[in-house]
Write a structure and sequence with these properties.
This protein is an alpha/beta fold. It is built from 17 helices and 19 strands. Helices cover about 35% and strands about 20% of the residues.
Length: about 525
């Protein structure tokens, strides 16, 4: 929803007497929140423990190869355009966004493939090629997806769900849309071919959800891709993060890297600022945490009694899977592997069994499925001349299972397994062209992002861990504290974290000078 920014509010953000909003974490949700609050007239300070902004959306450079560390695609670009417009800016003037066609190619061990595109006729042709008898079921699935999009994304996903009455009001619609059924079960009810069932149900894995258990509301992704396309930002998502920083700083906001928050300071039941790990205290009128919701409640509020998000409650929660990511560069390969496009998904021999090993059993399976990112086919500047930049991502168990994987021992053997799969199925001769190499394991996600159990996407988006059941955007525990990012409503993924800042802006009133009454601040 486009809103016209009041330039007087942005001007107020630079005034010393404007209320101070403090944002913990310069992830994409935190930066989007800083932009929204700056547009509402707040003086904004963003504190981040890393050396560069973007959180999971940042990048690293090794031997001339620039690697996106986390998200690689933009699926709902209007969310960014609306965010920029709320700040009186033009997103397309700041970020070079390119539509991809095809979106991605899915491959199976039997040699069959499915190419996802935006064009409806092309998608129907792919379905007919794999399983002609499933075309009618596919058409029904597309209609199902659109209905879930309008309800789950445009309605629930763009407003706060912190009141129980909000949940009660939508229960009949949840029942009508069979939200109790899993996204896989819904796809299976429409199509008989197991490859198509996978191709239309795997998307929750991109936000940390088990397709066999998360709600069928996530079938909305198929409509979302068809309606808005799949895009890549030149320079990667990191380029979007840095453009966000420029907007915040243009509003008069301050972003401090290398500043780790150790505790949220509470006075008379209200968040009044933070204390950094070095002991420095910073006061604020409101505090917004873009840290993981689990870390926020279990560590940053460790000295404050909690009613709902206690340590015991967090331990009982189901967390998303984690990730093993191999970032690697190659030399002399620009003209090689012409069938390896920007995005490729390599399926292992199992779907349900592998997902069960990852989410339920917590074991590192011998087989794997991989998401392979080759941005250099779209953005040659990410690699030295003649070379390529890749990452290969494998979903793996988080560290909170009974017998967590010993990644100190397993990281290199597992990387070698990943390399063999790539050489056998996508990139023959890869080993003789390797240059830069970097590995992230669940321990990296735990230590770099302070993610509980090294989970890749915070709390898993099951139906009883979504909407009202998820940590709220306005804290249930402390007045003046708000939460944004993957662990809160509406959830993980770029659309989710950007939408969480939009919800925040609905909850926080426009700023008024310090000392004047602040109606509505909680």
């Amino acid at each position: 929803m486009l809103t016209r920014v009041d330039p007087r509010l942005i001007e107020q953000a630079t005034r010393a007497d404007a209320p101070h909003a403090l944002v913990i974490g310069a992830g994409l949700g935190g930066l989007a929140s800083a932009m929204r609050l700056g547009a509402k007239g707040y003086r904004v300070t963003v504190l981040d423990r890393l050396d560069s902004p973007g959180g999971r959306g940042s990048s690293i450079t090794r031997d001339g190869h620039r690697f996106d560390l986390g998200p690689t695609i933009v699926t709902v670009p209007q969310l960014f355009r609306e965010l920029w417009a709320a700040c009186g800016r033009d997103f397309d003037a700041d970020v070079d966004l390119r539509a991809l066609d095809p979106f991605y190619e899915i491959r199976w061990p039997d040699g069959s493939t499915f190419t996802a595109r935006q064009d409806r006729d092309a998608m129907r042709a792919e379905v007919s090629r794999l399983s002609p008898g499933d075309l009618a079921g596919y058409d029904r699935f597309v209609k199902d997806s659109e209905a879930r999009y309008w309800f789950g994304f445009e309605d629930l996903g763009r407003r706060s769900m912190h009141r129980l009455v909000d949940l009660i009001k939508v229960l009949p619609k949840f029942a009508w849309l069979r939200a109790d059924r899993s996204v896989y079960a819904h796809a299976a009810g429409r199509m008989k071919d197991e490859r198509l069932r996978m191709a239309l149900s795997f998307h929750p894995l991109f936000i940390g959800g088990d397709p066999f258990n998360v709600t069928s509301m996530y079938a909305l992704v198929s409509h979302l891709e068809a309606a808005f396309g799949v895009h890549y930002a030149i320079g990667g998502v990191d380029a979007i993060a840095r453009a966000m920083v420029r907007v915040v700083e243009g509003q008069g906001g301050v972003i401090r890297q290398g500043a780790e928050v150790d505790e949220i300071v509470i006075k008379d039941g209200r968040a009044k600022g933070v204390r950094l790990t070095g002991g420095e205290g910073i006061s604020a009128d409101i505090v917004i945490s873009n840290a993981d919701a689990g870390h926020t409640y279990d560590h940053l509020l460790r000295n404050h009694s909690k009613r709902r998000w206690t340590t015991a409650r967090l331990k009982r929660s189901r967390w998303s899977m984690s990730l093993f990511v191999w970032y690697f560069g190659t030399q002399g390969t620009r003209e090689m592997w012409p069938d390896a496009g920007h995005h490729t998904i390599l399926n292992g021999p199992r779907y349900k069994g592998l997902v069960r090993d990852i989410f339920r059993r917590g074991v590192l399976a011998d087989d794997m499925s991989l998401y392979v990112h080759r941005p250099s086919v779209t953005d040659p500047g990410v690699a030295p001349t003649g070379g390529d930049t890749f990452y290969a991502l494998s979903p793996v168990p988080h560290l909170g299972h009974a017998n967590p994987v010993d990644w100190a021992a397993e990281a290199e053997p597992y990387r070698q397994k990943v390399q063999k799969v790539l050489e056998d199925q996508l990139l023959p001769g890869l080993g003789s062209h390797l240059s830069a190499s970097e590995v992230f394991t669940p321990e990296t996600f735990r230590d770099r992002y302070l993610s509980p159990h090294g989970a890749g996407f915070s709390i898993e988006p099951r139906i009883l861990q979504s909407a009202w059941f998820r940590p709220h955007n306005v804290s249930e525990e402390v007045r003046g504290l708000y939460l944004v990012g993957a662990g809160t409503h509406p959830g993980a993924g770029l659309p989710g974290v950007i939408s969480s800042a939009e919800v925040l802006a609905q909850l926080v009133p426009d700023a008024v000078p310090v000392g004047a009454p602040v109606g509505g601040l909680r």
